[in-house]
Specification:
By secondary structure, the chain is of the alpha/beta class. 70% of the residues lie in helices and 8% in strands. The protein has ten helices and eight strands.
């Protein structure tokens, strides 16, 4: 326990060390505040004196500047008065000169006015004479015009009468022509009606003939279909004892004269392990190729147990066609003999196979398809030549487009890499911003907690500290009664501050 003596009443009482330390800290804080207030007052007094000195100096400078300006104003006023006097004399002088010039001008104007008035009188007399002359001339002209108008009216009446006669005659002629045209049209319409009836009869006869021809054609097609169905069990008569490839080559040689500038032979070049069966190429007189066909021949024995489908050969045929730069791909096949779809003869399988310009045919349609494609391609030779010319002219454009494509590809790769790096950088920035926001939130919460702690420390007094100690409360109450103006420390900060704050929060 430590004894404490009151500085007012000199009463001695005992306190433990923790409370004594709190009271000592409170006294130290009060002394620090007093010293701080004294220094602040000293600084304020010094600043006030310096400010007053500067104000006095500024007032003196202002007075000097004011006196100097007054002198300059007086000098300027004297100069302005002298200048005004000089200007007044100059104005009087100029007014006198102007008056003299005005008198001279007035005399000149009067003389000119008299001369002009005499000229006007002369002009008026001449104008009267001229007017009289012109009036006589107008009267004479009016008489002539009246006579001319009367003559024109007579001519107009005669012309009108002649026009009426001509119009009646023209109307009569036109009516006769129209009636003649009407009769001619009626006659032609009658002839057209008769021709129409004859055409109808002829069309009916042609329709009957066409129906007969159609029936005959249907019977022939039925026979062809029957022949095609016979392929289900055996090969055609032409193929008895022959292989499919030999049959197609024989058929081509029979019609060799129809393809003078064409080649048809086996594909003997193996590329990437595969090759086609036959290649057909047709050229024009200039040696320009206008048709190329890759043929694949597929035959199957009746006794074969491993039946294959035509579509199993589409992909290989397309690859062989592309390797040899052929335009068309044709599969000559006897596979799937019971399939009515392929038994049509010539089947375009471009859609179902996914490969352009691909056909499946039966052997007997080999030459018809070849002739048809050759005729169709030959008609486009002129356009192919034009395309080749344009290709040769646009080779530079092709190189340019290739270079442009390479540039675009390289630029696209660089852009993608840069975009990825930029995205990574932006993600890093976003993460850093989120981390800084979390740190900012931590600082804000710390500031809030410190503000609350400071508020509770300011509200802490000796009375609150001694609230749970009846003995200290009685002693302070006794001191208050003895002293009319008791001394109570304002606020202290002690080791029990955080404990009191925690207990108040709880």
């Amino acid at each position: 326990m430590i004894e404490i003596e009151c500085p007012k009443c000199h009463t001695v009482f005992e306190e433990d060390e923790s409370k004594f330390a709190s009271i000592v800290q409170q006294v130290r804080d009060r002394e620090f505040h007093k010293e701080l207030e004294a220094q602040v007052a000293t600084i304020k007094a010094a600043h006030k004196s310096e400010l007053e000195a500067e104000l006095a100096k500024a007032a003196g400078d202002a007075r000097e500047e004011t006196s100097r300006k007054d002198e300059e104003i007086a000098s300027l006023k004297a100069q302005m008065e002298a200048l005004a006097k000089r200007q007044e004399l100059e104005v009087e002088t100029r007014l006198a000169e102007a008056r003299r010039e005005a008198d001279v001008l007035r005399e000149q104007v009067k003389q000119e006015h008299d001369a002009a008035e005499s000229k006007v009188r002369e002009a008026l007399s001449q104008a009267a004479l001229e007017s009289e002359r012109k009036r006589a001339e107008v009267e004479r002209t009016a008489g002539e015009r009246a006579a001319r108008i009367k003559s024109l009216e007579q001519e107009l009446a005669s012309a009108k009468e002649s026009f009426e006669k001509d119009r009646a005659l023209a109307v009569s002629e036109v009516r006769q022509q129209l009636e003649g045209e009407r009769d001619r049209f009626r006659h032609e319409a009658e002839l057209a009606r008769k021709d129409n009836e004859a055409l109808k009869q002829s069309a009916e006869v042609q329709r009957r003939d066409a129906a007969l021809n159609l029936e005959q054609l249907i019977r022939e097609k039925d026979k062809e279909i029957e022949n095609i169905k016979n392929l289900r069990a055996q090969q055609t008569v032409k193929m008895v004892g022959e292989e499919l490839e030999q049959h197609c080559e024989t058929e081509f040689n029979k019609m060799r004269a129809a393809f003078p500038n064409a080649t048809f032979g086996k594909d003997n070049t193996v590329e990437e392990g595969t090759k086609g069966d036959y290649i057909f190429r047709a050229f024009d007189e200039d040696g320009t190729e206008y048709l190329s066909i890759m043929f694949e021949m597929k035959n199957e024995e009746e006794s074969s147990t491993h039946k294959k489908r035509n579509q199993d050969h589409f992909d290989k045929l397309d690859r062989d066609r592309k390797k040899k730069n052929c335009e068309y791909a044709v599969l000559v096949s006897t596979l799937e003999k019971d399939n009515d779809f392929y038994n049509q003869g010539i089947v375009d399988v471009s859609g179902m196979s996914g490969h352009d310009l691909m056909f499946v045919i039966r052997p007997q349609f080999f030459m018809p398809l070849l002739s048809f494609l050759s005729a169709a391609a030959k008609s486009s030779v002129k356009y192919r030549r034009e395309v080749e010319r344009l290709k040769s002219e646009s080779v530079d454009i092709g190189f340019f487009n290739q270079a442009l494509g390479e540039f675009k590809a390289g630029f696209g790769r660089d852009y993608e890499h840069a975009s990825a790096k930029l995205t990574d950088a932006m993600d890093g920035i976003d993460k850093a911003i989120k981390q800084l926001e979390r740190i900012k939130e931590s600082f804000r919460l710390t500031e809030t907690h410190l503000t609350r702690a400071n508020k509770k420390a300011e509200e802490l007094t000796i009375k609150r500290l001694t609230k749970s100690s009846p003995m200290l409360a009685e002693r302070f109450e006794a001191l208050s009664e003895q002293d009319a103006s008791p001394v109570e420390p304002d606020r202290i900060e002690g080791p029990d501050d955080e404990i009191g704050s925690a207990s108040s929060r709880e």
